[in-house]
Amino acid sequence: MAYACFITTTPTNAASFDCDRMDLAADESAICGNRVLNDLDVKMATTFELISGLLPMGNRGKLQDDQSAWLKKRQACGGDATCLRNVYDERLKQFEDTYNNLGKPL
Length: 106
Fold this sequence. Notes:
Blueprint: H1 26-32, H2 35-54, H3 57-76, H4 81-100
């Protein structure tokens, strides 16, 4: 039995934006064209949503402010894949630290 395997080199959607837009910024183009970066974007966006839902209302504003500051850092990387990887790794580590410091029910 033969199986056809179709592999696309450019994902059409990252988690936080539409890769099919005509006006992608340099960082977005790099993310859409790189599977590792695209996967990091998916992980970052889903983790952000998870953490946002777990935080008390008073802390969500700070999380949003931190995310806006992080997006500026990501944009400053332009199309530099190494820089983008580093800012994603840094942000995901911050999310991990936030999660680990959440008050857990007994």
